[in-house]
Amino acid sequence: NPTAASGVSLGMRRIFVLLVVLVASCGQAVEPEVPAGLADSATPTTTAPETDPGHRVEPGVSAPCGEQFPVFVDGLDRGDPSNVHGIPGPGPDSEPAQPHQLVSHWLGDFATYELRWPPTDGSVDVTDWSTTTVDGYPAKMEPAGQERLTTVVQLSDSGGPCSHLALEVYGSSVDPLPDALAELGDAVRDGTELEAFIAAQADRFAPAVGGAEREVGRCAEPLVVELDGRGLVVDSAAVEVVERFLHDRLAGRRAEDCLTSSGLDDYQRTNGEDWPILCLHECADEVAVVGPDPLIVEVSGSGDDGLYVLAVVELSDGRRLREQLEVVAVADAAGTHEAHIAAATALSESYVEWADAEALVTTFLDGLADGDYEAAALLLVNEGYAQEVEDRLGDVYTADPVALLESFCRQALCVEPYEIVGPGATSLRGRQVVVRYPGVDRAVEVPFAVSMFEGQLTVGSLPPDR
Known about the structure:
The chain contains eight helices and 19 strands. By secondary structure, the chain is α+β, with helices and mostly antiparallel strands. The strands form five sheets. The chain has a seven-stranded antiparallel β-sheet with strand order 3-4-5-10-9-8-7, covered by helices on one side. Strand 18 (444-453) and strand 19 form a beta hairpin. It starts with 21 loop residues before the first strand and ends in a 7-residue tail after the last strand. Residues 1-61 have low confidence and may be disordered.
């Protein structure tokens, strides 16, 4: 998922949302205005009639801003292209659409997502649009109640009511709503990108064509799968298709049969020389695999429509080739699903192995328990400190970090028993080690961040307060 170059990204976890009061002069007609170059350019050329945005206005409600939104929504409901325009009209228990307002919604697991154009009640009185951006458009957000959150996007600076678009989420609990709003904001795209998005999505779910000159291998046999409750491939199937792919790839067989068109494109776009590298068949002569299997194949996370699998093999010169492969379910005409690899990313040398992360956190926590604050403090710093460490320890750059750590441990769980639960989230620059503190009243689980910079591992988290 994308961060703005300046300001605060809508994808950040702490979100403040703007309750918009749109003001129109009493007795004075407000002339609707369509942002120049937006409405006409967003026409979806491949949308089925039942999802055509021109049919999304409620009966009896006109939409002078346009018969379709100047943006579309990518990424909700696993990025399904048929869902980019949502369901016509307001969602369940939402306020009715106003005259001259275009409304569409999506039903999520924790909230309902909604677009309104123009926003409710008039024009927007906002002077500072620097808070964040939504797909490059300025946006403004502030608190707006307990069960409904709103952010307003500035489509143009003309000031007319149609120059603004409202993104809203609502539900029974405020807790997941900021995350839901972040998800909606991250999924909004300019309407001019719609045709390219639909084409790219088609490539993600179309089996690759290629490698006809090679001998067939394990990938030639379709891997029919069942889907989990989220509509994703189950973990075991995701691992199996990656293992098949690596076997055929390293044996010089037709590994293309395990890929979708977009997955094959990822390998074909790279030159096989820059490190870290992606290589399909070019690496076969350089790989030294002990036994028939790669060193590591493990599920490392999930996305909107696929599971991420980490694959690690060792090259003959001792370097390890790390890749993150996204496995999706490809449906045929009969509705049967097969597992294929839709995306490949070469991971940098800063990827942190689980065993190394676990050992580092154990060493750090044992050092705190033994009162060896000097040794523990060294594990917190590299070119700098993680933000959590700076926030909780204090001025680590001018004060003595050893003394700060000793003082911190007087009110934190530094000497209490702990146990390593297992791996948490992974990323290109590090991973988390989940630690449980049994406690007296209840157990507390804390993810400890471990990252690597220029070959050195550091801890980016501290024990919880007592």
